[in-house]
Design a protein that fits this description.
Shape: elongated
Number of helices: 11
Protein name: Chromosome segregation ATPase
Structural class: mainly alpha
Pfam families: SNIPE, T5orf172
Strand order of the largest sheet: 5-3-4-6
Largest sheet: 4 strands, antiparallel
Strand content: 5-15%
Number of strands: 6
Distance between the termini: 179 Å
InterPro entries: Phage_T5_Orf172_DNA-bd (IPR018306), SNIPE (IPR025280)
Keywords: Coiled coil
Length: about 475
């Protein structure tokens, strides 16, 4: 019974399981069909979306392709324009390069000329600097060594004839020979000739002005000014290649040099003549003074001789002997005067200064043959100076000329005026002159006043 029940239960279970299996299979089939239907619907939707997306993409691609084509066309147009512009710029650059090459060639030629000119100037720089230094200290260096002013005048006349000949034969100005005007070579030559005359006239005006205003110390500046004038003419006439020839320019520079040399030599000769006349005047004054002193002593000599003669006639020998002593003194003085007159080197060397006019570190060392040397000092203290000279020393010497020359030689490097030897002023102190006199004058130096009185100057300072 129980087994039957169990079997029945098992059979029921199996039936239930079969029913459940059938139901599950039926549900599974339904679900599968539903899933297949849903998948088909999803596939159809996806295909529809894909088709729509494809059409949209195709539209976008078409629009993009059209835009790209338009942009490509615009880009191509711009590229062509830019290429055309670049080509034009390249053509301009080529022209500018050609011009720059020509300009560079011109600059190269000018540089070459400048270097050549610089080499010429460097070749002259040592001489020029030396001359400049000499001119700064007042010493003129001659460019042409000739004997006298007459020789310089003769050389100048010959050179001026040469300058005129260069201008007359067309060698003064160089210019282009292939210049034409409106296709006419004859008109071109006429224009070049007219402009060449105009340029030469301007150059000659500058050169003539330099000659007229020449002073020896201005020579270098006037030569530089003439050279700049020549360069200016070359720049203004560059189109027709008009320029002053080297031969003509060099001739005019030589003219300036000779003119400066001539003026300097003429001044030196005038100064030499003035010095000779001054020495003659000084010598004449000394001779007149000696003559007056001789006449005075001869009168006194005759007087005392007559007195002695009368005393001896009266028999007064004691008084005659006393007068004889005075007569001896007069005879000695007369002998000294005769000796001074015969010895032209004898005289006084004087050392004087003028603090108010020239300062404390300048003295004048001179020589006079006067019997009274102070008269010469008074003459020097005339209207030419504001104060009187002070005397530091008066030294008599039988060779005063030699003593003066020794002092001048010792202080030559400190001479104030190194051109005119008559200007006997030196930048030294009285103490330095005293030491030099001790060496050269020896026992002739009796008295030396080192400190100047300068009474007028000190009174003027105190007023």
């Amino acid at each position: 019974m129980e087994a039957a029940q169990v079997l029945e239960a098992i059979r029921e279970v199996r039936e239930t399981a079969s029913a459940v299996r059938a139901a599950a299979q039926t549900e599974g089939d339904r679900i599968r069909r539903a899933a297949q239907a849903e998948a088909t619907a999803l596939r159809a939707g996806a295909e529809a979306d894909a088709e729509a997306l494809r059409r949209e993409v195709q539209q976008e691609v078409g629009a993009t392709r059209a835009t790209a084509a338009a942009e490509a066309k615009e880009t191509s147009r711009k590229a062509r324009e830019e290429a055309k512009q670049e080509k034009e710029e390249a053509r301009k650059a080529a022209k500018e390069t050609q011009l720059a090459r020509k300009e560079a060639e011109k600059v190269r030629q000018e540089t070459h000329q400048a270097e050549r000119r610089l080499a010429e100037l460097r070749a002259q720089v040592v001489t020029t600097e030396e001359r400049a230094l000499l001119q700064q200290v007042g010493i003129y260096a001659y460019h042409h060594q000739l004997q006298d002013a007459v020789a310089y005048r003769s050389r100048l006349d010959s050179l001026q004839s040469e300058i005129k000949n260069l201008a007359r034969t067309g060698q003064a100005v160089l210019a282009a020979t292939d210049w034409t005007v409106n296709g006419s070579a004859r008109e071109g030559r006429k224009m070049v000739r007219d402009f060449s005359k105009l340029m030469l006239r301007a150059y000659n005006a500058e050169a003539d002005y330099a000659v007229r205003t020449m002073r020896p110390h201005r020579l270098n500046s006037l030569v530089d000014r003439l050279y700049k004038s020549r360069e200016t003419i070359a720049k203004l006439g560059a189109t027709m290649h008009i320029r002053i020839s080297d031969a003509y320019h060099n001739a005019r520079v030589r003219e300036l040099q000779l003119t400066a040399d001539f003026l300097q030599k003429k001044d030196e000769e005038k100064e030499a003549q003035r010095e000779i006349r001054a020495r003659e005047r000084e010598e004449a004054a000394a001779q007149r003074e000696l003559e007056r002193e001789r006449e005075k002593l001869q009168k006194e000599l005759g007087h005392y001789q007559a007195v002695i003669e009368r005393l001896r006639q009266r028999g007064d020998t004691v008084a005659a002997d006393e007068v004889q002593g005075k007569l001896t003194e007069i005879e000695e003085a007369l002998s000294s005067v005769e000796s001074r007159a015969a010895n032209i080197r004898a005289g006084y060397v004087y050392v004087i200064s003028n603090v108010g006019a020239f300062g404390e570190r300048m003295v004048k060392i001179g020589m006079t043959r006067r019997l009274e040397p102070l008269e010469r000092i008074y003459e020097l203290s005339g209207a030419a100076v504001p104060f009187r000279f002070d005397v530091h020393a008066l030294i008599f010497s039988k060779d005063a000329v030699g003593l003066e020359a020794q002092l001048h030689k010792e202080f030559a490097a400190r001479r104030v005026n190194r051109v005119n030897a008559r200007k006997e002023f030196f930048r030294v102190t009285p103490a330095e002159v005293r030491e030099a006199l001790r060496r050269h004058a020896g026992n002739l130096l009796v008295e030396f006043r080192e400190e100047p009185q300068a009474l007028e100057w000190r009174a003027s300072q105190a007023a």
